[in-house]
Specification:
The protein is α/β, with parallel strands linked by helices. The protein has 18 helices and 20 strands. α5 packs across α13 and α14 packs parallel to α15.
Length: 436
């Protein structure tokens, strides 16, 4: 039996009514460690946790309501019983997205999503009340939570979308219903889940497929042959190019180490390391122009943007200059980072590379290719860390664990050097800074 009055709530609590509660208490929370007054707690489930068990704790900490999907945890009238708490969160996000007037810009791609999202936010915030995905909360939970941060006065919301399987971007688009979209690139990322490079292209292109089917607007790189081909006959698009005058003309002036570009007679000196960040800057330019942000404001926003969270950061540590790019890695971004590092000025260069994850059957081949590239470039020092790199056939120093590398570096301190640190998030290679 349900407590008195609860069955009434269960029967009549539609998304519309839940949204009315949300407007009164406009914070959605899924973690009891982040509970504060005037929030609604959604009891989500995962492989190793069940939020229903923490519903009572959420109420004690100040949540106004809890949305649960197990009858046995229902407490009082502040408990809202639904069939599925996650689905309810997603439906509420879509309803709220329709309720608000903000234009939605969706971003996906194999590399550069978060940097591009941050650049767009910096540019658009010069003129509009803008929100953007926090960090990389870009999945089936993060996207709804971002949508629920939109306020009635929000003018633009930038939604980052991540995926490692087919149909995920399509699903996220159905939740967010974007007005605009941009794909940064197609690379060798999440090959295991996507089923190879062709699967990556198909999966990421679900964003453009959604926009085309709903006759919405697309931003694109006109120099990307895949994007150019897919959008050849689609009219509602805006592009940039280093070659033609049909689209926004941009010029790459170099990246030694920071990207410098030029457009419409304006030179922009960024604080972003690596030529691979050029296209991210171009996207910010393109979107800024489309939304009539002044070139002076666009230039200022891009030039003042400094990356963080271990993404292509330039760090000075004692006598070392370090390019810390340890947030994530895949074969495409690894090659780009190494090629860019090759061109940087430095009397002594050291690379410290960690395993690349989620590559499936291609893992051995891709790690061997990365090791071979390091050998071919012939850096002054090179270290490979992780089970996958340890199995490569190479003369480069390699270590099965991070701890093994630590022991070596403590016994053999590096001479002053320009250092590249890059690996997948699970390797947490930023820990090397403690040794250096």
């Amino acid at each position: 039996m349900y407590p008195s009055g609860l069955f009434f709530i269960f029967v009549l609590m539609t998304i519309e009514r839940l949204h009315q509660l949300f407007l009164k208490y406009p914070v959605a929370c899924t973690d009891t460690r982040q509970i504060h007054e005037a929030c609604i707690f959604f009891a989500l489930k995962g492989d190793n946790f069940d939020g229903n068990k923490f519903a009572g704790d959420a109420l004690r900490k100040g949540a106004k309501y809890v949305v649960v999907d197990k009858p046995d945890v229902v407490g009082d009238e502040r408990s809202i019983l639904v069939d599925d708490a996650l689905s309810t969160l997603q439906q509420l996000a879509t309803h709220h997205r329709k309720y608000c007037d903000a234009e939605i810009i969706a971003l996906t791609g194999s590399n550069g999503k978060t940097t591009t999202k941050d650049l767009l936010s910096a540019v658009l915030s010069k003129r509009f009340k803008t929100i953007a995905t926090h960090g990389n909360l870009n999945n089936h939970i993060g996207v709804p939570l971002t949508l629920l941060r939109i306020e009635k006065t929000t003018e633009i919301a930038i939604i980052e979308m991540g995926a490692n399987h087919q149909k995920e971007i399509e699903f996220l688009c159905d939740i967010a219903l974007p007005d605009h979209g941009y794909i940064t690139n197609y690379g060798k990322a999440h090959l295991e889940g996507f089923g190879g490079v062709e699967g990556v292209i198909k999966g990421k292109s679900e964003l453009y497929d959604h926009l085309i089917s709903h006759k919405k607007h697309i931003f694109f790189n006109a120099d990307d042959p895949i994007q150019a081909s897919k959008l050849a006959r689609y009219e509602k698009k805006t592009g940039y190019s280093i070659r033609g005058k049909e689209y926004l003309s941009v010029e790459f002036l170099g990246a030694l180490p920071y990207v410098v570009l030029k457009t419409e007679g304006f030179r922009i000196n960024t604080q972003l390391i690596g030529s691979y960040n050029f296209s991210n800057c171009c996207a910010a330019l393109l979107v800024g122009y489309y939304f009539d942000v002044s070139i002076d404001d666009i230039k200022e926003a891009i030039e003042y943007y400094i990356p963080e969270n271990n993404r292509s950061q330039m760090i000075e540590r004692d006598q070392h200059s370090i390019v810390l790019d340890a947030y994530n890695a895949n074969p495409t971004s690894m090659r780009a980072a190494l090629e860019n590092f090759r061109q940087m000025n430095g009397t002594s260069k050291t690379v410290i590379l960690g395993d690349m994850f989620e590559l499936g059957d291609a893992s051995a081949e891709e790690h061997q290719a990365a090791a071979q590239l390091v050998e071919d470039i012939n850096f002054d020092n090179a270290f490979l860390i992780g089970e996958h790199f340890y199995k490569t056939d190479t003369s480069i120093k390699k270590y099965r664990t991070f701890e093994d590398l630590c022991e070596y570096l403590k016994a053999h301190p590096l001479e002053p050097s320009l250092i590249l640190i890059k690996g997948s998030r699970g390797m947490a290679l930023e820990r090397v800074l403690e040794i250096l």
